[in-house]
Amino acid sequence: MLRKFKISVDGKEYLVEMEEIGGTPAPVQAAPAAPAPVQEAPKEEVQAQPSPAPAAAAPASADAMPAPMPGTILKILVNVGDAVAENQPLMILEAMKMENEIVAGSAGTVSAIHVTPGQVVNAGDGLITIA
Does residue 43 sit in the same domain as residue 65? Predict the structure, then answer.
């Protein structure tokens, strides 16, 4: 459906017709997915590399400290068994090209680390458990 708009730029008025596309962006994104078969071989390689990484990270439990935002784990600054103080930096999370320190919410001992360096996490994913 075409919609007409009157736009004023530097004192000059222009009549502009624009097509309302609504939910059309999903098919537009599906079109670039056509080259996916070319990317499937690298995805298998990528999946083959992280396979050992989840084995090193323990599965997150309900009491695990959640990720505050989506990003990539750059560094883990503590090890399992380390005693940590409140507000002590535990890991570095890169989000939107900024490095964010993830700090301990309370003092305790690191009982499990649920992520590995280079791992991409979503907001709310379990990062570390402090007992």
Answer: no
